[in-house]
Design goal:
Flavodoxin_dom, 5-stranded parallel sheet, Rossmann fold, two-stranded parallel sheet, 11 strands, 2 domains, iron, alpha/beta, iron-sulfur cluster binding, globular, 4Fe4S_Fe-S-bd, EFR1-like
């Protein structure tokens, strides 16, 4: 069973490519989170978790989802993290989660994909993004073949400062940056409601046809990057920046 969480499409692309090789069932953790319940999931094939890297670790919302969900059948698990450059020491935190859940961690892989964190920097331009995605395909295919054959994935070297990035910097990231307060719509808003439909935490409501953000935000960037009229900004940071959407490449 492949379970993915995605904001701008990097992880859904990766999960779907893996599924095209393994032919396993695929489940959107976005949909599971939107339902607000942790359904029990059963699989005899390995569990394959595919998600973005948030400040060199798996997103807190996904860690909590896995922690609160009952998985029956197999105990084998793979974690595939998409990232802009590297995943720091994320694997050590994945190991702790697997130990807590009783999973047998068969592999951890980092898949370099285009940058999308628009609130901090300008995301990868589409032409360069296509090159990065095409390069990523080779590794995704190799990972998928290993999963299909139940092979363990090779260990990947922890980069310089990995422990610090996944530790104290991750903590600072959530306390200092992850907030919905800066999001707002502009006059380009057409009241289509797509932002509310996409939000995995049901944190956006339309009030008189315009989006209003609550307090429960994970900074997935789905609302701002996948708005069809590019009518969402974050403070003054995002004005004029590229909206990255892997689904449009």
């Amino acid at each position: 069973m492949i379970l993915y969480f995605t904001g701008t499409g990097n992880s859904s692309y990766t999960a779907e490519l893996i599924q095209s090789i393994t032919k396993d069932e695929i489940v959107s953790m976005n949909e599971q989170l939107r339902k607000g319940t942790s359904d029990s999931l059963q699989s005899e094939n390995p569990l394959v978790f595919v998600c973005p890297t948030y400040a060199w670790r798996i997103p807190k919302v996904i860690e909590e989802y896995i922690r609160n969900t009952q998985f029956t059948g197999t105990k084998d698990a793979y974690f595939i993290l998409t990232c802009g450059a590297e995943t720091g020491d994320a694997k050590q935190y994945v190991k702790k989660l697997c130990k807590e859940k009783g999973f047998n961690l068969k592999g951890f892989a980092a898949i370099v994909m285009p940058d999308n964190y628009i609130v901090m920097y300008n995301p990868t331009q589409d032409e360069e993004a296509r090159v990065i995605v095409n390069k990523a395909k080779e590794k995704i295919n190799l990972v998928a073949e290993s999963i299909r054959n139940s092979r363990e994935l090779k260990d990947e070297k922890v980069p310089f400062m990995g422990r610090t990035k996944s530790g104290i910097i991750n903590t600072m990231f959530y306390s200092m940056f992850v907030s919905a307060k800066g999001f707002h719509s502009t006059d380009q808003c057409i009241s289509c409601g797509k932002c509310a439909q996409l939000c995995p935490l049901n944190n956006i409501q339309l009030v008189e046809g315009k989006p209003q953000w609550g307090k429960n935000c994970t900074h997935c960037m789905a609302c701002i990057c996948r708005c069809p009229s590019e009518a969402i900004e974050y403070k003054k940071n995002t004005k004029g920046r590229n909206r990255y959407n892997a689904m449009k490449l």
